[in-house]
Specification:
Largest sheet: 7 strands, parallel
Strand order of the largest sheet: 1-4-5-6-7-8-9
Number of helices: 8
Radius of gyration: 20 Å
Helix content: 25-40%
Oligomer: single chain
Number of domains: 1
Mean pLDDT: 87
Structural class: alpha/beta
Distance between the termini: 25 Å
Length: 310
């Protein structure tokens, strides 16, 4: 939860809180829950409640980005969901204030609580609370101010904060993506990991007619599932998304294939939680063996990095 990470699309993780609850099929084999429960079992004092939502402000992790002096892409809350119902509004405002005062970095947020994110970030009262937290950090705690914050018209949404939603299948794509596109953000993106079925994203990748709303997704990440109980991701699902992104000019990154490879002669036919066989026969292998390539190619697209006055 500090500098350095094995996540292909980030440079560091920052966890001002840990813990969550499951809301959809993408949560079934939550890697974060396994990590936190192992730390809890090992007796680490920061994790006394297993995967209950717990703030880590008391041990200084809340303020970690303010101490980093080298630019990083920072994944926010890899072990939690910032917009969980158990997280107070004022805590979320403090997190946004710390990001506002850390323009050296690019912050990457993901949530499955799309409705709360949209409601908070669209609310003038919440923006005022963020401004209040910024003032407190600068005046009371001596945190260096950031020049761009003095542009009254342009400081919100924060230009170096990328807002994203997790989308595991078409059902949740049609629910979470429209809410994301209706949320004030400098960059909007989705993480389709674990990818549990084909996704048709073209309506969200093309700019809509100007008289409706010109917003679209700025970045798409896909990935297969790994770890205990992992479900297979078929390469065709990822190829479909890669093709849609290529046709619309949206950056695409494929994180990993998971732990299954196609095997026409294999004996393993994966079955989903409803007892239905997945199309095609596949064989489980180590994650490193499955790799990241699709048809011999590695996809490492990123949206354009922001330039923010320091």
């Amino acid at each position: 939860m500090a500098d350095g990470t094995h996540i292909e699309w980030s440079d560091a993780t920052w966890n001002p809180l840990v813990g969550c609850t499951k809301v959809s099929a993408g949560c079934d084999n939550c890697y974060a829950e396994g990590v936190v429960n192992r730390w809890h079992a090992a007796g680490k004092p920061s994790f006394p409640n297993r995967f209950d939502v717990v703030s880590l402000r008391r041990n200084g992790l809340l303020y970690l980005p303010l101490r980093w002096t080298r630019p990083r892409k920072v994944f926010v809350n890899s072990l939690a969901d910032l917009f969980h119902a158990d997280v107070p509004d004022d805590f979320i405002a403090r997190v946004f204030a710390i990001m506002a005062l850390s323009p050296l970095h690019t912050f990457q947020l993901l949530t499955k609580r799309h409705a709360r994110m949209r409601a908070l970030l669209s609310d003038d009262g919440f923006r005022s609370e963020v401004a209040h937290e910024i003032n407190g950090l600068v005046v009371t705690d001596g945190v260096p101010d950031a020049a761009y914050l003095h542009d009254v018209d342009d400081w919100w949404p924060l230009p170096h904060v990328w807002l994203g939603v997790s989308v595991e299948d078409q059902h949740w794509a049609h629910i979470r993506i429209p809410a994301l596109l209706d949320t004030p953000a400098a960059v909007r993106w989705i993480s389709a990991e674990p990818l549990l079925g084909p996704l048709h994203l073209r309506p969200y990748l093309r700019p809509r007619p100007w008289y409706l709303d010109a917003t679209r997704l700025d970045w798409v990440v896909t990935g297969g599932e790994s770890g205990p109980g992992a479900r297979p991701m078929h390469r065709a699902w990822a190829r479909l998304i890669a093709d849609q992104c290529a046709r619309t000019g949206v950056p695409f990154l494929h994180k990993q294939n998971g732990v299954y490879v196609p095997d026409p002669d294999g004996t393993h036919v994966p079955v989903d939680s409803a007892g239905r066989e997945w199309p095609g026969r596949m064989r489980r292998v180590p994650k490193q063996t499955a790799g990241r390539e699709l048809d011999g190619r590695t996809y490492d697209g990123f949206p354009r990095m922001p330039v923010v006055a320091r």
